[in-house]
Each structure stands twice: as C-alpha cells, then as structure tokens.
Amino acid sequence: MKVGLVLEGTYPYVTGGVSSWVHTLIINLPEFDFEIYYLKPDNKVRSVKYEVPSNVIAIHELNIFGDFQPKISGKVDFDPLERIISEISSGKAIESIIPFAIEFIEKNTGKSIRKMLKTRRFWSIMVKIYENFFSERGFTEYYWMIMNLFLPVINALQFTPDRCDIYHVPSTGYASLVGINGKVIHGSPLLITEHGIYHKEREREILLSSWVPDSYKPMWVQLFRIMSMIAYEMSDLLTTLSRKNQAYQLKLGADPEKMIVIPNAIDVDAYSLPKEPHEGFIIGFVGRVSRIKDLKTAIRAISLVKEMIGQREKLKFLVIGPADEEDYLTECKRMVEVLKLEDTVEFLGPQNVKEYYPKMDLLLLSSVSEGQPLVILEAMASGLPIVATDVGSCKEMLYDRDGQCGIVVPPKDHFSMAKAIVRIYEDNELREMFSKNTRRVVQKYRLDRMIESYRKIYLSLIEKRVPSIS
C-alpha cells in the first residue's frame, strides 16, 4: 500500500517539528510505502537533513513559484471562476464561494490552468476585479500582485501526483491542493493533518510583511482562509494535535463528524534519563533560531532573571538548534553582547539533545506560533519544569488535568517570562512537583499510541476508497 505525502517546505530538506513528525511516522510504519511530494519556494538545491528510510520509494519536487508548465491540455471551464467573482463583487461572505471554488478544481484538475492566464476571458475577469476593488492603485502594480498571488495556486493545481492508495497532507494551503488533485483524479482518499493552523500562520506573516501593500493584505489573507476551507471540505478525515486547533477548524466550517485529535508523540523511554549533577541553574532553549521562535524575547527574559537572581547562583542559558535565519542569529548574538550576557548565553548549534536534557533545570519555549511542540514532550519525559508561551497547545499540555507541568506566559512578554522562571527557581517544592507531573503526564503522548492511530486510519480510509473519476 502506498501513501502519498505532500509536504510544503519541510521533510526531508528542512529540520523542525513537522519534519521530525513525518520522519517518525515513516520509520514506524514500515508496512506502507511512502511517495513524497515536496513543494519548495525556489530552485535552490537542498541537502537532505534526514536519513531517508527505505520505504520512501520516491521524492518529487515542485517550485510552486516557478515556471511550471507540464505537458497537459484541456480547455479550462471558466464558469465557476466567474461565479466566484460575481459573489465577491456582490459583497457575499467567503463561505458562499467555496462550492464554486471546489467546482472549479473538480472541473479543471488535470487541465492546463496556466494557459487560461493568456485568454481574453481571464483578462476580462482581471479588469473587473481591478475596477471593483483596486482602482485607486496603479494597474501594473495590481497585475503583478495578482500574478504573485495566484501563481503558486495554479502551479499546485497543475501538479498531479502519481496514483497512491491515500494522500496524506500535514497542512492545508498549497500542499492540500496537490492532495486534492490526487483525490479528484485517482479517487483516493485524502487525509489532512494540521500541526499549526496554516491560515492563521500565513495571516500573521502577511499582516507583518512590508512587501505586500496594505490594500492587498486582506486579499492574501482571504486566499489562505479559502484554501483551508476547501481542504476541510474535501478531506475524508481531518486530524489535528489539540482541541484548541479544532476550535479554529470549526470556525472555518470543518465537519465535526470527520475530525479527530491525535496528539504528537515521542519515544518517552528514550528521553527518561537520569539527571546529571552540575553547577548553577541551567535553562535550555531547544529549537530553530528563527523569528517565529522569538529567541530575542527569551534573551531579554534571561537578562532580567540574571538581575533577579543576582549572585545567588551561576545562571546558564543554552541555545540548542540550527540557525534557519542567519541574519536573525546575528541579531540575537548582538543582543547578547549589548545586554552583557556573554558569560551566560551559549549558542551551541545542532546537538544531540538527549545529552543536554539531563543537565538542564528548566526548558524555556518563547515561540510566537507553535502546533504541539515536540521539545515540550521531550522535556517532560526528562522531568523538566517548563516555561512556555501561550501558543498552539502549550497550555493544554502544561495545565493538564492530571497535573500542572510548568507555567504558561503571554507571547513576547519577557517580564512575565522572567517572573515565571524566577518563581520556579526559588520554589524547590514547586519545581519538584512540576518535575513529577511532567513524567506522569507525558505517558499520554507515547509514540506507540500515535503510530497505531495512524495505522488504523490509513487502513480504514483505504478500505473505504472513494469512487474514481478517471
């Protein structure tokens, strides 16, 4: 049995939580073959970051922003697209256009959608949108903004995967369009798994961006919402990591009848290591050095912690993980110098974290966006108290009904972060209680439970294979 995994910017070329999850899934389901469809943002040659398992039988790549013109034909049916424009022009809610968007996909999958950009009918639609919504902007700017908006969508819709028994997409967005192609053309079931909520993450990026003029930002945000709504509607099953994520999915019309929560998981026993004696109080940061992990807020918090602790004990802050953004790493190192923390903060790069968890006294997670961080589970298995920002399912994990495992603080609030760290540092009983609770609560996130859940889902979906239209 063959599973088509459609991945956007993750495995096997980029490390991180989703990539680790994918790798773990593949190696623990050896009875399935996996064919990977990797969507990338450019034509750069990337090195593989994982030892690809033998049951990965092929890796296909697509530059979704590139000049992708496959040898396919077929005249595009414009009718659903014109209905979409009519609904938007009438001020209808985006929910009203989803049926027409799905109709457009179902009627045009496997056709050369790229060619429609050169037709008079498409040009007429472009002009109508401009006159209704963007006439105060220059037309040339508008044209290229529309092209940048829709090029990756068109490329994804033209990228037809090979026949697989099931398509599994760990996100919505562009990758989900490829999975939908597979479902429509080959009649194979589609499983969507969301770690973070894709449209929320893209919305945050767009609103903070400088390259998208303010007039166009609502259009970009709506596009990603629409893609999520289409993916939710066309999926046969929708899994996510937490109840909090489900709430976001339900707001966009996901069907509760096909929703399942399957938490992240780790090999708990592999991280249940004895503590190692060490000097001072050691705080660990484990993750990619990138803006979304917000290491700068963590560094500011460490500076305050150092002031609060004073000379009582030597403080160390270990930053473990690769630098996804070199310029951001440089900024973080500069901040360390400005705050005079050179003797406190150590940038260790990628390391075997199992060698460091036993040396730590606390894990700090400062992200502005997360799904269900594996590093929290690893730290829990190691018996570490945790201070984490209130993103993704962090609160759900740390404030478990069977025991509190740490303290959750608002994102980008280094004062609250520092106070939480000092509270744990100063209260030995609290620290011990958190440590005991983490080892107990993490048993709910055992790897064998997650793997068995996906094994059952794969087999169930394959047995109920939907009819093929090809």
The parts where pLDDT drops under 50 for at least 5 residues are: 466-470
Task: Name the beta content range.
Answer: 15-25%
Main sheet properties: 7 strands, parallel
State the separation between the terminal residues, measured CA to CA.
Answer: 20 Å
Structural class: alpha/beta
Q: What's the shape?
A: globular
Tally of alpha and pi helices: 17
Domains (count) = 2
The strands making up the biggest β-sheet line up spatially as 3-2-1-4-5-6-7
Radius of gyration: 24 Å
CATH class of the largest domain: Alpha Beta
Per DSSP E runs of 2 or more residues, the count of β-strands stands at 15
The CATH topology of the largest domain turns out to be Rossmann fold
Query: What is the CATH architecture assignment of the largest domain?
Result: 3-Layer(aba) Sandwich
CATH superfamily of the largest domain: Glycogen Phosphorylase B
Helix content: 40-55%
Average pLDDT number:
93
3D structure, described in words:
The radius of gyration is 24 Å and the shape is globular. With 470 residues, the protein is α/β, with parallel strands linked by helices. It folds into 2 domains: 2-72 and 107-265 and 450-463, Glycogen Phosphorylase B (Rossmann fold, 3-Layer(aba) Sandwich), CATH 3.40.50.2000; 268-444, Glycogen Phosphorylase B (Rossmann fold, 3-Layer(aba) Sandwich), CATH 3.40.50.2000. The protein has a 7-stranded parallel sheet with strand order 3-2-1-4-5-6-7. The chain contains 17 helices and 15 strands. Residues 466-470 have low confidence and may be disordered.
